[in-house]
CAP-Gly domain-containing protein
Amino acid sequence: MSAPFLSKDDVDALRAYVAGPDTGFANKADSTVLLHVTHSNLKARFMEIRLDMHSTIESVKVKLSFHCGTNPGAMLLSLLDEGGNLMANMWEDSRKLGFYSPRDGCTLHVTDTDPTSASAGGWLEDTSLVEKYKISDEAYDKREKTYRKWKNEQLAKDPSWCLEKEMAKRRGEEWVPPVKIDDPDHMADLAAAIKPGQRCSVDPGDRRGEVKFVGRVEGLPLGFWIGVAYDEPLGKNDGSHRGKKYFEALPGYGGFVRPDKVKVGDFPPIDEFASDNEEGLGGDEI
């Protein structure tokens, strides 16, 4: 049985529903509320959590315990408004959440009163506190079939050996050594035609976004780089490199690419709902 044909009006209605700003809110129950969650021992701001207004504070604590690891009996809950101002302290576990009149966008702040809590002292977030396994060079050299021994064997056979060359060999490709760039103005001519604020397409993959930065980046190879804030999480950073901020982007949405990989012009965000059915619906409609 063939799939039903969707008219252009049907596709437009579906697009508006899924991509609209109220997605996830239009059909929510009147008795629920969407709240942010913060924690006294954690730096992370949790994703929004939907809670029923008829839930008791005790049941809310139980639900939050699965997200932050704090024992419900050691929790003190505070309700904050959108500006972080205190609206109420939720002292009574038997009260319903709705008694405190929370609204979408407010914050539930969890204060952990347990000094032995797993989250105390940053143990759930700061990986530097975790003891790492260490081995001395002498002990490592005594091991058999290690990467270090294999690497030294390859270098003894071929002084120009490197891992990239090895991978190219295994793929059956000819390895071409990368050209060392020592010109601080490398690709300056191409970069001169690209301006922050322009829409762009980045190769490979026609990754769409907006140019946010044009210039040199400390810590990257010499020459000019283009900072792009992608429309989708196709980048590798948030506009920073080695702790220095070059432009604003959401984590995973920013990236630095060479000017020859960037085309600027009329490159609107890719419409995931566009289909062949929409083409040819009218003489001038594309």
In short: The chain has a mean pLDDT of 84.
